[in-house]
Amino acid sequence: MTREAGVEELMASNGALPEMAKLLAIPLDEILVIDDGDNDIAMFERSGLSISMGNASPEVWRGADVVTGSNVEYGFANAVERFILGVEPARVASKISLILTIFLEEQWARP
User: For the residues 14-26, what does the mean pLDDT come to?
Assistant: First the structure.
């Protein structure tokens, strides 16, 4: 089984979020989740706040509490600024946010 298949299986079984919450001693209702896949809807249902990326399917949008911008609209950075840092989204993402987004996308795209 590849790394990605293992992660997908864990996420699909909804096992990762409760395990992370337990490991970090954070109640599930205090966890914010940002994602864009159909398999994330179950995770959305267990988190305190769920945010769908704008490039997700309408089904994922309906499963989330909030829909942010797409990847190219810096939706991830804007959601972090607004819901974690408590500031209104900036018009242009900082270089750090952009680098983080690119890094995460590359990690998930690796075979």
Answer: 78
